[in-house]
Structure formats: C-alpha cells, structure tokens
Amino acid sequence: MSAALEPVDKAIARELNADGRCSFTDLAARVGLSVSAVHQRVRRLEERGLIKGYTARLDGNQIGLPLTALISLTPTDPAAPDDYPQRLEHIREIESCYSVAGDESYVLLVRVPSPRDLEELLRRIREVAKVSTRTTVVLSTPFEGRPAPI
C-alpha cells in the first residue's frame, strides 16, 4: 500500500480485499460514504491499478486439478536473456510466476490433474525456457489467498 493512499481509499481497498463481491451499497455502509462516492473511488482505484481485478478462487480438487506444485527455475545458461515469463506465459497450467532472489530466478505455482501431467509440464517448461527445474509438490494447503494485511 502506498503511504499516499487516503484513509477512506485504504478502507475501501481493505473491504474489497476481504470480500470482492461486496456490493457498492454494503461497501458504502462499511466505509461511511454514499454509494455514488464509493463507486467513483473504486473506479479511480481500478484506474490507478491498485485494484487489479476481481476473481473467484476455485477448489482445485473439484475442477480436476488436485495436484499443486512449486517449480523453481534456474537458467542453464547464465548469459541467456531473462525472458522466462514471456516464454512461459502461454502455458495455462502455470497459475503464478514469481521473480525471486537466490539461486533460482523464478518460482512457478502450477496446478495439474496428476503426477504424469506434472512430469509432462516439467518437460515442456524445460524445453521452452531452457532452464533446469526443482519441484516441490504441495501435500496440503492449510490456507491460501488470504487478504493482504492492509
């Protein structure tokens, strides 16, 4: 959060972060503004890029993607251009791509139907990005997608 964020905008962001489906009427009541004022402020926060979008979090088991893994990428050629996100963005199984400090350059969060699918995905990632990988399979997820602490 930017220090320049007004307290009422911070309150709006906090409420939407906790409940992205909150109606403008409920949001207005929660932050003490009129519905039209809240609507204008939310639109400005979206235009500024503070609110990047709204989404539903789906249960991987129920949509046929029960296997979650973190894949760390290390360049095989340290002199190669750092364009891995662009090389990998078309691969739909990759849910998130994080640039990280340390031995690896990026960590990917992926969801797939089975170990065999994970094996095939790893092959495709290595082939497309020309990287070595280190994979951590998620056994369970006690929590995820928590609201940002704003």
Written description of the protein model:
This protein is an alpha+beta fold and 150 residues long. Helices cover 36% and strands 19% of the residues. The chain has 5 helices and 4 strands. It has a 4-stranded antiparallel β-sheet. It starts with 6 loop residues before the first helix and ends in a 13-residue tail after the last strand.
Oligomeric state of the chains present here: single chain
Radius of gyration: 20 Å
Helix content: 25-40%
Q: Low-confidence parts lasting 5 or more residues at pLDDT below 50?
A: none
Structural class: alpha+beta
Provide the succession of SSEs.
HHHEHEEHE
Number of helices: 5
Q: Strand content of the residues, in percent?
A: 15-25%
Largest sheet: 4 strands, antiparallel
**Large-scale geometry:** elongated
Overall average residue pLDDT: 94
Order of strands, widest sheet: 2-3-1-4
- The beta-strand count equals 4
State the distance separating the first and last CA atoms. 7 Å
